[in-house]
Write a structure and sequence with these properties.
alpha/beta, Rossmann fold, seven-stranded mixed β-sheet, six-stranded mixed β-sheet, 13 helices, disordered N terminus
Length: about 400
């Protein structure tokens, strides 16, 4: 079962569901808050979300709102309703800071932040003096919590954990030689994640033959293809911090050149149904490690099914992560017995073995803002994502 198998509303329905209620004065920030009447004692969860721009596939206002709907139907938290206040930061670091400040000014108990370190770090810096926790819904970059260790958290795993898992899986498949694809265009995800894979791959007995640079957003990677065509031996696996569309363009061009025996590996940047459409038949060359999979009977499948019935469209795994972000904040509020930001921030640091939405156990205690979580290895079968196995690697490269 793929997350893309849940029919529903279009991405444009985000604007219809929430409405553009106002523009932040002189700032151009779309305010994506729910329309129902708001009570003065609502607990505000802020969300500086990438509703538009290059990071939009890796954020989900709808996922967060669906979990809030579910929680509020059961009475809320500490007898109070949760309220989502979302702002479109348009995949821009400056706009992210502006959105973050607006949410702080609204009195947010916690803030959900965008899916990259360079857009989340400014928000955490602004929130720190107020004791407000900032949780990135989609970022796997350990550099974010390292930059603001007192109040910054990943909801996903760290890139070193997922890359280590990918390397362990690759070695167990008999892959001996690897090429790392490096890009500077998407922060540490494109720079550090391949190096984590390389470190783990070599630690486990593999060999990194070469590092090749590329730029994101192109439709032609013949230069990189030519470098690999000239190699002897050729790699068994090519690993990169791939996102849409690059992660699909590469295997498509390699297949066209007759190099269809090479496996392309990555992490959650591949967990976007748009990859399948762009890659076509070459999608079968792709394997990746991601946050979870909606297997029958799983919490993620139940969440997807329930939210679909409520009129939401499940875009990808980041819908589940957004819901999980709200669940982390709820758990912390309950543990603290308070919605006071500093108390909630302190309680997040003590979370251990919390049952999540994408995975069965989440621990923040003694993890420096980077949770330990079980992951899923996924491939493409007959044009659909298919789970291979769960994984928690034995060796994790240092961040």
């Amino acid at each position: 079962m793929s997350s893309s198998n849940f029919p529903g509303l279009t991405r444009g329905s985000v604007m219809k569901r929430y409405g553009v209620l106002s523009l932040a004065a002189s700032l151009g920030l779309a305010t994506l808050s729910p329309l129902p009447a708001q009570a003065a004692d609502d607990i505000i969860i802020g969300y500086a979300a990438a509703v538009t721009g290059m990071y939009a596939p890796y954020d989900s206002v709808d996922g967060a709102q669906c979990e809030i709907d579910r929680i509020n139907e059961k009475g809320g938290v500490l007898g109070r309703k949760l309220r989502l206040e979302a702002r479109d930061m348009k995949s821009d670091a400056v706009m992210a800071a502006t959105a973050g400040q607006e949410l702080i000014d609204l009195g947010a108990t916690a803030i959900l932040s965008p899916p990259s370190d360079d857009t989340s770090i400014p928000i955490a810096a602004l929130a720190l003096p107020h004791g407000v926790a900032v949780l990135s819904v989609g970022s796997t970059q350990v550099q974010f919590p390292a930059a603001s260790p007192e109040n910054a958290y990943l909801v996903p795993y760290g890139d070193n954990l997922s890359a280590g898992a990918a390397a362990e899986y690759a070695i167990k498949q008999g892959y001996k030689n690897a090429v790392l694809m490096i890009t500077r265009d998407i922060g540490s995800y494109g720079l550090a994640t391949p190096e984590y894979f390389g470190a783990a791959f070599e630690h486990l007995g593999g060999k990194v033959l070469k590092r090749i640079n590329y730029n994101t957003g192109l439709s032609d990677y013949r230069a990189q293809l030519a470098e690999i065509q000239a190699m002897d031996p050729k790699p068994d696996v090519i690993f990169g911090g791939f996102i849409t569309p690059d992660g699909a363009v590469f295997p498509r061009q390699f297949m066209a050149a007759g190099l269809d025996k090479i496996t392309f590996m990555g992490t959650d940047g591949y967990d976007d149904p748009g990859i399948l459409e762009i890659a076509g038949d070459s999608a079968k060359m792709i394997k990746f490690v991601t946050h979870g999979f909606p297997a029958p009977g799983s919490a993620l499948e139940e969440f997807y099914t329930d939210c679909t019935k409520r009129g939401y469209k499940i875009q990808n795994i980041f819908f589940g992560l957004a819901g999980e972000s709200v669940l982390v904040v709820k758990t912390a509020i309950e543990a603290a017995g308070s919605a006071e930001p500093a108390a909630v921030n302190a309680a997040i640091k003590e979370i251990k073995d919390m049952k999540g939405i994408t995975t069965d156990s989440i621990t923040y205690k003694d993890r420096g803002g980077v949770p330990i979580k079980r992951m899923a290895v996924v491939e493409v079968v007959n044009g659909k994502f298919s789970k291979i196995q769960d994984i928690l690697p034995e060796y994790v490269p240092a961040p």
